[in-house]
Amino acid sequence: MAVNNDNDNLSRMADSIQTAFYEGHGECLVEFLLENETKIEYFSNKFEADGITFEEPQTHTFSFNNTMGACPKCEGFGKVIGIDEDLVVPNKNLSVYDKAIACWRGEKMGEWLNQLVLTAYKFDFPIHRPFYQLTKKEIQLLWTGNKHFKGLNVFFDMLEKENYKIQYRVMLSRYRGKTICPDCKGSRLKKEAGYIKINGKSVQDLVLMPIDELKLFFEILDLQDNDKKIAKRILTEINNRIGFLLNVGLEYLTLNRLSSTLSGGESQRINLATSLGSSLVGSLYILDEPSIGLHPRDTERLIKVLFELKKLGNTVIVVEHDEDIIRAADHIIDIGPMAGTYGGELVFQGKHKQLLSSTKSLTANYLTGKEKIPIPGKRKSWSKYIEIINARQHNLNGVNVKIPLNILTVVTGVSGSGKSTLIRKILFSALQKQYNGYGEITGKYDTIQGDLDSITSIEFVDQNPIGKSSRSNPATYIKTYDDIRKLFSEQQAAKINQFKPSHFSFNVDGGRCEACQGEGEIRVEMQFMADVFLICDHCNGKRFKEEVLEVKYKNKSIFDILDMTVDDALEFFSNHKGKIEKKIAHKIKLLADVGLGYIKLGQSSNTLSGGESQRIKLASFLSKENEKKSSLFIFDEPTTGLHFHDIRKLLDAFHALIKKGNSILIIEHNLEIIKSADWVIDLGPEGGKNGGKIIFEGTPENLIICKKSFTGKYLKDKLL
Predict the structure, then answer these.
(1) Which helix (H) or strand (E) holds 664?
(2) What per-residue confidence (pLDDT) applies to 347?
């Protein structure tokens, strides 16, 4: 075609080229008629490189929530049901010869092991070396096998082919678990998404970067002029959002981190970052315990973020017990003086300086030092321990650490330093498999050794609800409801009506209101809106039949008892000297001892906070007096939602567990708990890739002189 600048000709040429692309299925040849020569150029509008045609990218190509981008193997979940290597080799202290491979034990399956043992000399395989000391190449050989022996992959393929036999199906189920998808390696995106790169990085690479590294990547990103114009607004938004996450102290997270693995504090800070990004003005923000999961150093950064929200013209209301946030507040409202029926009053309202002179405020007493959580006069010594060797999951840097037994041990460190990975992902998961035979996927480590025979069980006291049913409540969980029902069944009115203890339960037919099935409310399904719950008009929310409610104990019906707070119920039953009453009072006292005097005995479990659920579980363990077990209890942030006064009660409960021969391990940032510990393990020095090291092991008194430790810096004021 002749080249000229006539608009009509240009339009005609464009139409012709478009037609040529269509007819040529994305390819065309254009002949240029120049002054002295004719030139033919080849053009293609296909998305291709090196002769390979790729799928043209769209927004959905990079989303695992869409079929266009999700890995077809795991459907965008990043994990599949496969053979869990930790279940196959539960005890890594054993050698292959000593039957470390659990599925090759027994007479029949042992033939697979014998095949390896008898031929190992031919390829120099160390059958007597402990499994945790094997190299990656040697472990891989166990799975793949060679010409001398059939590996684990062949073994499990055989089980799959012959799964019509029930014994093989049972064996397969024993070793199955959630494993990382072999196709996408956990990225959740199909491999085609990884072909598209910016500055040599695919989207999978970017979402696996810690946020501080991601910020650096986009800061130095060098694009061509045309690409800069296209990406200018997008890059501005990306950099702003990354900056907000950094401001709230989440630089150690990666963008592909599952929300289910985030702590409550991390989730709340992500919401804070979203609020900062929205740049709203004139809004009211209400934050409930935003300092959850925050080290004192990170709390300072949080306070700056809250002031940023205020500077934008917003109002910020914070429900909080953290001392630093209370001191930083412009205005303080203190509710009390105690909890439950002894609280609910406005004790103080005003500035921080005015609060310190208040005589009614329990908070003021702790801030001024009139009331204190005492420092232990003597730290308990220890000789028995459990030792983790070469913990290297996530950011843990080949850590070796001893966990003392029969004392109060606290694991601390800045947010993201590796505390939860070390204790929950490695220690708890590994010991749970050892003691119970099952558990979640265990993090990477070599071995766990030490005085493992000194403990009989391991308990992780988390903040999950105490029950899934709305009928679950504190009284049922600590088993005192059984005694209360028995007490009512022994009353004269119950005997006349032949009421058994089951008649005083809202879980079974008999005495419960059948209209609401003992729920106390009726659920009305709304087709296009959220369901509505109305108080049952048959029992007026009391959950029992009228004749059952007529049975009274000291002028109280079963509903009246369940509607009492723990403190009121304790006072009520303590005034009566019967055997059952004493038993009930003893169990209820345990709830009061862990700082739950304000909750109701029959309060539905779905209305309890995570911290309250955790303390109810603690009370349940304290109630098991007759069980001669030496358990290791692990608590993750047990001070969540606790006032200074409640922390004092909580520490008393911990010491009661230790007196019974148990061991307590706490992941915590609260300085009051740390100063009360017998032994402290401090991780850091920073979070993410700059953390994962043991900074300090020892007593709190020695921690404050450790210059590398941020925890020691903030703890100093509590001990001196």
Answers:
(1) strand 663-667
(2) 93
CA distance readout (Å), 231 to 193, 221, 339: 19, 11, 55
pLDDT tens digits for range 20-45 = 888 888 888 888 877 777 888 888 88
**Which phi and psi (to 5°) does residue 189 adopt?**
-105, 150
DSSP 436-505: HS--SPPPP-SEEEESGGG-SEEEEE-SS-S-SSTT--HHHHTTHHHHHHHHHHTSHHHHHTT--GGGG-
pLDDT, tens digit, for every residue of 210-245? 898 999 999 888 888 888 898 999 998 898 889 888
Rounded to whole angstroms, the Cα distance separating 621 from 547 reads 36
Dist CA 141 CA 191 (whole Å): 27
pLDDT of residue 86: 80
611 pLDDT higher than 90? no
Question: Using an 8 Å Cβ cutoff, are 660 and 678 in contact?
Answer: no
Residues 690 and 697: their CA atoms lie apart, in Å, by 19
Report the range of poorest mean pLDDT among 49-58, 126-135, 539-548.
49-58
DSSP, collapsed to helix, strand or coil, labels residue 548 as: helix
Interaxial angle between packed helices 566-574 and 579-593, expressed in degrees from 0 to 180 and rounded to the nearest 10: 150
Supply 624's token pair.
């098991």
Contact 274, 250 (CB under 8 A): no
DSSP characters for 509-531? Answer: TTTB-TTTTTSSEEEE--SSS--
Confidence category of residue 6, pLDDT binned at 50, 70, 90: low
* CB-CB neighbours of 468 under 10 Å: 10
Whether the pLDDT of residue 626 is over 80: the answer is no
Residue 144, amino acid? T
Q: Which amino acid is present at 713?
A: K
Q: How far is CA 115 from CA 119, 146, 501, in A?
A: 6, 11, 62
* Domains of the chain and CATH, by start: 7-46 (no CATH), 79-180 (1.10.8.280), 385-463+631-719 (3.40.50.300), 474-608 (1.20.1580.10)
Distance of CA 342 to the CA centre of its chain: 34
- For the chain, the C-alpha Rg in angstroms (whole number) is 32
89, HSE (Cβ side, Cα atoms, 13 Å): 22
pLDDT at residue 623 above 90? no
Q: How far apart are CA 292 and CA 640, in angstroms?
A: 6
